[in-house]
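Review form for a predicted model. The reviewer records the input and the model, then writes brief findings.
Reviewer: anonymous (R2)
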Amino acid sequence: MAILTIPDLPAIASGNDSMLFGVDDSGVTKKLTGTQLFEYVADEMASVSTQTSLADNMTMFLRNVSSGADEKTTLQYIKAYVDGNIGDVKHVHEDFPNAPAQPSWWAAMDGSAISDADSPFNGYRLPNDNGADVVLTVTWASGVAAIPATDVTALAVGDTVVGSGIAADAVIDDITGTTVTMSDTSFSGSSISTTFSNSGRFWRAAEVSGPGKNHAFQGHKHVMAIYGTTTGGGTTYPALGDTYTAGGYSFTSIENNYSSAGDGDPRTDSETRPIYRAYVGYMKIKNVP
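Model under review:
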């Protein structure tokens, strides 16, 4: 079988991964499925022993076997097909100097809606892992809302929830199917313009992908017991910041934000996090350019 022509590719129908034309042994022109294409590529490459990499082999194949086909277009289709699986996620340092733009089959995870007939995710929103604002018109009833299946894919537990009348610092506490529950369970309102956002997402392995967790710190407490004359011979447990005097010394009980010359001032923020480097998350949404 030989590649005949690449330009003027036919529309790819749902469930049909045919990409290229070929001629069978009887001379009949047919569309090549992805499997047939790569079997043919593999057969051609098998006889090439002087090349050392798949890219080199593929380039030689395209130059010597495509019989006048548009080499660049052919390569784009092959690259799109083999460049990961649909739904794969990757991290990109896209702001590095001279970093190239990502190909069209990868989409930034910014919560935007996918509008691409070649993608099985067409009509759904991308996960919002890059920290963008996702604005939806939501009907809340005691902090609970039914979000359309095509929109809820952009949301995750821990996202901030902002809207007229919604309590400050409200967050998503739970997502079950298309039902979203936020921390302000007293709020109800119809057709509220609601903004969901976050500061960027870490990824962690789990049995079910998508929902995530809010940031948290292991539950614990610090207790300081004082004995002696300052308590009348008994024991007391001072409150945060209380000052006591004993034996000529004045001291303060447990305080906020301990600092020292050796460790520097503590850094506080709205989340608990380790040191990190930022990236832009992308998801593969289709197998064609």
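Findings: The chain has three domains: 2-82, 86-215+271-289, 218-262.
Further findings: Confidence is low (pLDDT under 50) at residues 1-20, 48-52, 63-69.
Recommendation: see findings above.
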